[in-house]
């Protein structure tokens, strides 16, 4: 739409808010991707911009007219490969690109929904994804569309034909590695993380040449492991045995399974890291760096510039992978209003963190869920949680399991993978959260390659009669919840905010819903036929504003949710791309 499609729109430019961009041969560049949030005629990055604020400047669709929103088409992914559809679509040059379960990638005509091509990765029988066969999206650069696969490969396809350009192995799937996140394009590099934290793997962030797939640098996330740069060892991550006992750092976890964000202003990548291995924290004394953390990484070298650990010595599977979203705001500092470069993260542990993104210093931390039984707050001076020792699962006694404790949030998190949105108009973050708890206990465990490495058991439980899911509008300057919308089932999809005073998200019950961004009033909903666990987007096409979302129930909840999952076992599976607009 920005390139060849801009010619079609040239005659409409005076009547629309879309600024025509020059036609560039070969497709989007790294500079175009950095500017994605300012070009509403396409969506060429996960999160609708490298900072992933998921905010659109479009307002033709707004809180006054959204009640008239109707479907344009629904494009089925087809076949028997349904399961969870957690993808965010990309839109470019009249084509919608979307990944599907079982490591598939589709190209659909953006006006008609007609399928242009489909690519199916040839997955081996022994893949070991912990949390469904999902994929969260692709990246686009030049004539390539790039995505990761469940057998831990990174594949670049020709975006016109779906033919393979290059295919690179990221890690050994037989050791438990996989990949599900949308890649990030920065400076002509493909930046990716890895999955497999439940299998004793080592988390890593890596950068590859976007044209060839050749490795440029790697950064392991666990102390004691050596990074690389241009084919040579670079620096060790942290210090060997500084926060790990013995050889436990060799199976330390810390997967970077949600991918990262990029801030051009500070030239920093922000990647969250997952749980330490094993879950049984009694086996690994210490903070276990750099698990359950946010890492700020230099994209040019792969060096860690700062880190902030949200859950030191994690014993509840509170992965710290959730997205860290850069934003600017004025904060009270010693009674004075100070403009600051900030970043926000709604962590799985139930706290909403605001950090100075230039140095990682904690600015504020506030609870965004009903309860946090594992800690009673965050110490703003030290940045560390105020742990409640009695609510840490007990050590096993020989072959017997340890003392069971009740913990809230559950290990599925106050917020899991589903991305929040930030509105530059309201100054609010819109957080898809869940209120639930769990009984959790520790068990004996030993590492075995390719086997689950938990050392814990659990039973997830609801903690409220009227809801589990809650879409909450958080004010990052005060830490207060401005409004909330409660949903009976867990919320497991991403959020979109727009200049039209709208917030969109989906529900497992099958609805895509629109809310008033200021008040939280529900303004519109549409039943898609299956649970919505994808991330909605919006763009302008032919002078009209469109909205799209994937529908297809799945993900971690039906697999790990126990009694909670049984409550919603009747939700139909599916696999469809839905596209909406206002009627003319």
From TrEMBL:
Its main location: periplasm. SUPFAM superfamilies: Quinoprotein alcohol dehydrogenase-like. It is found in: Periplasm. Residues 45-363, 473-547 form the Pyrrolo-quinoline quinone repeat domain. Gene3D superfamilies: Quinoprotein alcohol dehydrogenase-like superfamily. CDD domains: PQQ_ADH_I. Residues 1-20 form the signal peptide. InterPro entries: ADHI, PQQ_b-propeller_rpt, PQQ_MeOH/EtOH_DH, PQQ_rpt_dom, Quinoprotein_ADH-like_sf, Quinoprotein_DH_CS. PROSITE patterns: BACTERIAL_PQQ_2. SMART domains: PQQ. It holds the Pfam family PQQ. Its cofactor is pyrroloquinoline quinone. Keywords: Disulfide bond, Metal-binding, Oxidoreductase, Periplasm, PQQ, Signal. Belongs to the bacterial PQQ dehydrogenase family. This is Methanol/ethanol family PQQ-dependent dehydrogenase. It comes from Novosphingobium jiangmenense. The lineage of its organism: Bacteria, Pseudomonadati, Pseudomonadota, Alphaproteobacteria, Sphingomonadales.
